[in-house]
Structure formats: C-alpha cells, structure tokens
Amino acid sequence: MSRPPAAVADGYDRCILVTGGAGFIGSAVCRHLVRGGRTRVINLDKLTYAASLSALAEVEQSPCYRFVQGDIGDRALVGRILAEERVDGVMHLAAESHVDRSIDGPSVFVETNVTGTFHLLEMALDHWRTLTGEAKARFRFHHVSTDEVFGDLPFDSSRFDEASPYRPSSPYSASKAASDHLVRAWHHTYGLPVVLSNCSNNYGPHQFPEKLIPLTIMRAAAGQTLPVYGTGENVRDWLHVEDHARALETVLRCGVVGETYVIGGRTECSNIAVVTRICDLLDSKMPLPDGTPHRALIRMVADRPGHDRRYAIDPSRIERELGWRAEIDFARGLATTVDWYLERARGSAG
Ligand code: NAD
C-alpha cells in the first residue's frame, strides 16, 4: 500500500470517468468536480428512471464535461471511453439504489451492482495495465458504497467504522457488499489501485422522490398522507449530498490505495423525527389551506421487511487523515432542501 505522490495530493489535472453521474449523488459529484476546475469529467450513465439530466444543466456546456449514455456492463463502450479519453480515475457510482425496489425485484440489483461492477473492474484493469509513468501512478478506481453493507446497529452508542464486519440485510445492501468485495479482490489479486468509501444516508436537491426526504416533502406539499414505516424509530445518519461530493473527491485524490473510508455527517435522526421536522418547515413555508398542521398527515404503515434499526458512522478516520469534515448542518441543509423541492412543486403546479 503506497501513498499517492505529493504532487497528486496537491492537485494534479485528471480525467475522471464518473459512472452514474446523472443520479442523485453522481450529478452532485459532476457539478462539484467541474466547478473545481481541476478535473475533466466523463459521465457514463444509462439514464434509468432515477437519472435526471436537469441536475447537470449547470455543467453540460462546460468544455471539461462530456456525457455518454451507456451501460457500465458494455465493455466495448467502457474500453473505448477509457482509452480515447486517457482516463486516469474512475468514480463508480452507477447502481440500483432503492431498498424497497430491491425487495420487489432483486434481479436488476445483482445485474447492475454486482455484474456491472465486475465488468467495469475488468475494463479498468485492462486500461490501467496499458498506462505508464505518472498516469499509471495516478490512476485510482474509487468504489462508492453505502453504510448499509454493515447491517443493523442496536439503539446504543455503537457506530460503524472501517473495521466493521459486513452484515447486509437487504438485496440492495447485499449487492453493494458483493461489489465492495469484488473491488478489494481486484486490488489484492491484480494490484488495481482502488479506494473505497461507505457513506451514510444522503439528502439534498435532485434526489428521485421515492426516498424518505423528497417523498415526504413532495407529498406534504400536495397535502397527501405521509407514510412512515413501523414505529418510525429507525435511525439514520444524514449527510448533505454536497458534503459527500467533497468527501469523494478527497478520497479519490488523497486516499491511501487499498483503503476504505467511512463517511457520515455525525447527524443521527429517527425517521419520524425527520418527517416531523419537514412537516414543521412546511407549516411555515407552505401552510395547508385549512391551517391543519402537516403532522396530521403522518400515517404509520407496515414495516419494511428486514428493516435495519439503526445506522451510524464514526467518520474520525477521514476527518483525521484526509482533513474532510461535514460542513452543512442538518437544520440548514434540510431547510434549503425543502425550499428546493417546494420551488419545483410550485413550478409544476403553475
Ligand atoms: P441514484 O439511484 O440516484 O442514481 C444511480 C444512477 O446510476 C442513475 O443515474 C442511473 O441511471 C445510473 N445507472 C444505473 N444502472 C446503470 C448502468 N448499468 N450503467 C450506467 N449507469 C447506470 O443513486 P444515488 O443515490 O445517487 O447513489 C449513487 C451511489 O452511491 C450508489 O452506488 C449508492 O449505492 C451509493 N450511496 C448512496 C447513498 C444515498 O443515500 N443515496 C448513500 C451511500 C451510498
């Protein structure tokens, strides 16, 4: 395991292939990298239901950005992009990402998250072997994963860290765990220079409104009932997507090859607390016509099968070793996120 050269940690121009760059987090990564001005970004995305090209409006005209519609499993296409663009880093975010969908139809999760990652690793390895000198030394395959691979925590002070054992509970988390293992194997067996990160729940603009925060905002704005699983006591550790995008660039540029970094916002919050906070924000920003508080719309519904009770991250390592820390406080981030979705809701109503 070797540290990247100092020149790289200081900021060397790179060409990064971002997979899944039209998704919620991938688009934040593309915006962040293009804004930074140091990186050429190639975004490879299949454009599934979860993708949003409007999330990329800010960067689509930039000379250091290129979009390619395609599948990470299309070896010919991936090989062509890696060679033509002389890519010296891959940030792999393409995935099926919704736990409920993985319960209803796990097949595409195995296909994309496991088999797709396998194909991408093979093409990245072939490409890395053709590189020489600085480009070879600089090359990284950054696998972006989730804290859900670590499974269920009790309601106590325990938290996930880089040494936490893998105990995935859902088809989604099992498929992400499998991909994490493949990535580590390609490092240990073939020497591919990889870095991995496992992050907690993200929130922010441009998230497909099937996940808790955008779903709750959009339904509350429309005066619809707000479903909350089980007792609502399940706890998640929330991180603003822009903080995550910054963390991902930090891991790519400065992370130690072969190592993993867990990323989180030190913001544990139960699902019911998140939903009631959104209701209270909506009461002031978009009151219901009859003055009923939005909390009255909350309905407890049958729990998700295998629903993990609690996730929590101890991000000490990335804070200490790479100097990253979350900057967007949850109260402020949630309020701006609510504003963003309300603007959209008003736009589509008007
Ligand atoms: P998302 O569902 O919003 O976006 C996924 C993107 O991948 C979409 O644009 C989709 O079109 C694309 N995609 C899917 N299959 C593809 C394929 N075969 N080839 C090319 N592109 C394909 O997901 P997200 O929430 O942005 O998550 C991105 C990554 O981060 C995932 O790997 C996820 O596991 C991980 N992650 C997400 C969270 C979170 O809270 N959302 C937290 C931690 C880690």
Q: Can you offer a commentary on this structure?
A:
With 350 residues, this protein is of the alpha/beta class. It has a domain at 13-200 and 241-264 and 313-327: Rossmann fold (3-Layer(aba) Sandwich). The chain is 43% helix and 17% strand. It contains twelve helices and twelve strands. α7 (171-190) links the parallel β5 (140-146) and β6. Residues 1-12 have low confidence and may be disordered.
Supply the key terms.
single chain; 350 residues; alpha/beta; Rossmann fold; seven-stranded parallel sheet; three-stranded mixed sheet; 12 helices; 12 strands; 43% helix; globular; disordered N terminus; binds nicotinamide-adenine-dinucleotide
CATH topology of the domain at 13-200 and 241-264 and 313-327: Rossmann fold
Envelope shape: globular
Helix-strand sequence: HEHEEHEHHHEHEEHEEHEEHEHH
Count of separate DSSP helical elements: 12
**CATH level-four homologous superfamily name of the domain at 13-200 and 241-264 and 313-327:** NAD(P)-binding Rossmann-like Domain
SS-based class: alpha/beta
Please give the CATH architecture of the domain at 13-200 and 241-264 and 313-327: 3-Layer(aba) Sandwich
Q: What percent of residues are in strands? A: 15-25%
Mean pLDDT: 94
Compute the number of strand runs.
Answer: 12
**What Rg do the Cα atoms give?**
20 Å
The unique ligands bound to this protein are:
nicotinamide-adenine-dinucleotide
What's the helical proportion of residues? Answer: 40-55%
Q: CATH first level of the domain at 13-200 and 241-264 and 313-327: which class?
A: Alpha Beta
Q: Which strands sit side by side, in order, in the main sheet?
A: 3-2-1-4-5-6-10
Biggest sheet, in brief?
A: 7 strands, parallel
Distance between the termini: 56 Å
**Uncertain residue segments:** 1-12
